[in-house]
Amino acid sequence: MIPFLDLRPGVDVADVRAAIERVVTRGWFVLGPELEAFEKEFAAACGAAHAVGVGSGTDALALALRAAGVGAGDEVITPPLSAAYTALAIMMAGARPVFADIDPDRLTLDPRATEAAVTPRTRAIMPVHLYGQPADMPALMRVAERHHLLVVEDCCQSHLATCNGAPVGSFGVVAAYSFYPTKNLGALGDGGALTTDDTAIAARLRRLRNGGQTDRYHHAEFGVNSRLDEMQAAILRARLAWLPRWTDERRALAHEYRRRLAGAPVTVPPELDPGHVYHLFPILSRDRTALQAHLEARGVETLIHYPVPIPRQPAVASERPRACPVADRVCDEVLSLPLHPGLTRKAVEEIAAALQAFHAAA
């Protein structure tokens, strides 16, 4: 069996155990020195002036919007292809998600569709760097500038990615990251962070994540309880040191997939920027159901990211979402193949051979 993912610590196990022991021995578990150190280290890795740790990637997205001044009555343009939490975070901030269709090759927010979706109520654009592929940020920033819109980047799947040589997260006013265990930089639990170069936004984020407190028991505004705890911060510090190596491994495995799937009757979305970090390796197939069953029978576990476009989710029905035909088609065809540090090239060879065998028999 070739599993889709193995979340147990591997080459980093000694570092993770040392981090856990350090926190237990110190006896400080919330808003302590591990979080402070991780925030500085993660900000440096992202090329940002500030990082703020929070409880989840969803909280990071919602707090990013609130800190930037987005709220009730505002519209935020976002893609229909993503984890639904992107749109749910917009709703958590009191704003309305407006869906603009995706580019059929990049599978991220289409700049032309984004511009067509702008209304007098549009306040911000929230692009998602999906599957580790950076969105077309230069084109999206031009749209934002023409219409005087904020840009808040969803970087939950794109740790260390770059776009045109610049770090993702550096284009907008604030960016959100997830440390859910499956992410390129994953915790042993939930967690998230925000990065920004704006000192005032960073200060407000630190206040909002901690109940709106300016100091203990003094709450200046309505905030939430969303703090990245010391245990997860310490684990993330240990794993951050491994992230460049793991990113190189992901890219090497992805290029091996591309080589072995050349000519196969499936669509492999192109790498449109060398800054792609391959959080996932999706392919597109009109025979997805049969192909997934065939691969499972050959011992290859696959997953679908994502089977239902966000505008078709009952949770957002009240927002009157518009049709997004490209995303609809992709959600019917997309299939994610195993790709993670520790996966061998031999496994990639076997997966590609199993896929080729399906189409040879069809």
Describe what is shown at a glance.
The chain has 362 residues and is of the alpha/beta class. Helices cover 38% and strands 14% of the residues.
Describe the 3D structure:
Helix 2 (33-46) packs parallel to helix 8 (230-240) and helix 9 runs parallel beside helix 12. Strand 10 (213-215) and strand 11 form a beta hairpin. The radius of gyration is 20 Å and the shape is globular. Helix content is 38%, strand content 14%. A seven-stranded mixed sheet has the order 1-9-8-5-4-2-3, with helices on both faces. A two-stranded antiparallel ribbon has the order 6-7. Strands 10-11 form a two-stranded antiparallel sheet. The protein is α/β, with parallel strands linked by helices and 362 residues long. The protein has twelve helices and 13 strands. The chain has helices spanning 13-26, 33-46, 57-67, 85-92, 111-116, 137-147, 199-208, 230-240, 243-260, 288-297, 325-333, 345-361, and strands at 50-54, 75-78, 96-99, 122-125, 150-154, 162-163, 166-167, 174-178, 192-196, 213-215, 218-219, 281-284, 334-337.
Topology:
Layout: H1 13-26, H2 33-46, E1 50-54, H3 57-67, E2 75-78, H4 85-92, E3 96-99, H5 111-116, E4 122-125, H6 137-147, E5 150-154, E6 162-163, E7 166-167, E8 174-178, E9 192-196, H7 199-208, E10 213-215, E11 218-219, H8 230-240, H9 243-260, E12 281-284, H10 288-297, H11 325-333, E13 334-337, H12 345-361
Parallel strand pairs: 2-3, 2-4, 4-5, 5-8
Antiparallel strand pairs: 1-9, 6-7, 8-9, 10-11, 12-13
